[in-house]
Every structure is written in structure tokens, then in C-alpha cells.
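Hi everyone, sorry if this is the wrong subforum. Our group has a chain we'd like a structural model of before ordering constructs, and none of us has done structure prediction before. Sequence below.
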Amino acid sequence: MRSLIFLLCALLGASAQLQAAELRISGLEDITLGEVAPSSSTLTRRLRACVSMTPAGPFQLTAIGNGRDGAFALSNPSADVYQIPYEVVAGQRAGARSINLLPGVPHGSFSAREPHRDGRCRPPELSIFINIDARKIGQVPPGRYSGQLQLIVSPE
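Answer:
Right subforum, don't worry. Here is the predicted structure as C-alpha cells:
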């Protein structure tokens, strides 16, 4: 009887350790580029997001665009053949190496802390940079271009 009780306690302990982490991403907003003219520079917009996890730990980030095969691209709804590619770069700490994200490929090296009691984000925040080669804008007809970027966070 004693060994049966021990086995049951061991199984209960193992199931508690296998419990899924609660992972949240917040602070995401639409990015508006506004009216953009072709130039020789890179157009960059930054989005700050808060990723928290209970318990704290590492996570991976996957980005998927709405271009062909998940590519990062802005398109004109009336002429879908014209697309403006863009680059997605993610990082967490100032001065630390940022990661160029590839469509549909999970990237690790990110860390999440437990959420603050009052709901504020604890550093480090996740910074997402959208970079558009402005020369590409001159290669498509004028019009309204838009796109979607899906960000998926998952525990490592």
C-alpha cells in the first residue's frame, strides 16, 4: 500500500510540472505608413509589444505575412500582382542583436517575465521593426497598399 501512495504522489507531481505556461502578448497596434513617396532610403516603423509568461521563461516568435507563401508584403487590393516586400526585425534589449525574421520560421532567444501585478509590462519589451526599401515603392503604381503581419509567440 505504501508504494501505491508514493506512485500516485509522483504522478501528481509530474502532471503539475507539465502544466502549460500562460503566455500573453499585448500592446499590438496597427502601423500606419501614411503617404509615402519613393526615395533611396529605408522606411522604418517600430511597434512595441509586451510579452509576459507565467512562469517566466524563454519564448519563440514566428511571423507570417499575408503575401504569397506567408511573405511579408504590402499589396494593392485592386491589383494584387503588385506587392511591396518588407522586412521584419525583432529585438528586446537596446544594444542587443536584433533578429531578421523569416516568414513562418520560429526564432528563439527571447525572454518573457511574469506580468506585473498592476498589468504594466516588465522589461524587456519586444520591439518589432518593419523596414521597407523605399525604392520598391517607385516600382509599383500609385495606390493604397496594405498588409497583415501575424505574430505567434510560444514557449520554448
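For your construct planning: The radius of gyration is 21 Å. The mean pLDDT is 79.
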